[in-house]
Amino acid sequence: MKHLYEYINEIMDIAEVNHAEPQNAKDMFLANARNAGDPTLPHYRGAGNVDYAALAEDLPRLTNEGAALTQALFDHYKALVELRRAGRYAEAVELMRGAVEAESSGLCDDDE
To answer: What average pLDDT is seen over the chain?
Structure first.
């Protein structure tokens, strides 16, 4: 079972290659998964060797996780960029995992 935060580095790569904001690149990543196997539909560059077709069964859950990932990106963007700039990609995934799980569990206080 895959989670959207596991693909944060690929999402950020899509953002860079397509000159898109990360939250839009998240939607582009999900579109790639939705459109996998159909060459007539859009496929966005930048995510390397992701097997989008293999994500088909996880697509509903990945889509549902999108809002939490968008909030995590907003809340931790600077730290995420710094980790990626330093080549600390696994730590970037862990940062997003923790943020998404906190957001999904209601542990984040949106009133701060």
So the answer is: 92
Which value, in Å, is the radius of gyration of the alpha carbons in the chain?
Answer: 14
pLDDT at residue 107, as a whole number: 54
DSSP 8-state secondary structure symbol assigned to residue 88: -
Q: Which amino acid is at 22?
A: P
pTM of structure: 0.90
Cα–chain center distance at 2: 11
Integer Cα distance of 97 and 104 in angstroms: 10
Residue 99 to residue 78: CA distance in whole angstroms: 13
Q: How many residues does the chain have?
A: 112
| Of the candidates 94, 67, 63, 64, the residue with the CA atom closest to the CA atom of residue 79 | 94
